[in-house]
Amino acid sequence: MDTILINDPRMTMVVDTSGLHSMMIRFCQCAGALSPDMQLFETSLFPASFTSPKIAFTFAVLDNFLLDNHECGTSAMNYYSKLRRITSSVFPHLVPDWYRDLMRVGRQWRQVKQLKWHGFGHEKRKPKAGELALFCPACPQPGVNLNMSDRNESDPAWLYSRSLVMDGNFKAEHLYPTNPTDEWH
């Protein structure tokens, strides 16, 4: 089978930890070839659009963004500003603004990682309510880490009760955003 390439390559913006790069990408058009978005996935690039990809984020930049966001509390805007400064330290304001794409792809990437971590990476069925929740080994879970037959009547009731909270600090201070346009972490 001969390889057939699109006659005109597409200009694609690739966002990496080393900055933003304009690249000419030719997609394979062989019979049975994957769609352009899937071809990008095969090369560790996450497309910002699945129908007509013009922007792609490397898996490395998405992992780095999630880590910076989680560990350092870096907002998406600050992270993207850093990428713009890495791309052009003298004129970062001239670097194209793909901030909204980073926000959307970052959320999709986080969801893909969650599905993978919870065993849904190779399953077609969608997770049911609560199946993506993290297991807390310290919380009493009947049948998992708590045998109800060993319970003593003299033990206090709170010892066997479950506590369901909105956050890990056992207080739901930030249940709703003060400004609906604010980003969620």
From TrEMBL:
Q: Pfam families of this UniProt entry?
A: CxC2
Top-rank taxon of the source lineage equals Eukaryota
> Taking every annotated instance into account, which residue ranges of this chain make up the domain CxC2-like cysteine cluster KDZ transposase-associated?
11-88
How is this protein named in the record? CxC2-like cysteine cluster KDZ transposase-associated domain-containing protein
Source species taxonomy: Eukaryota, Fungi, Dikarya, Basidiomycota, Agaricomycotina
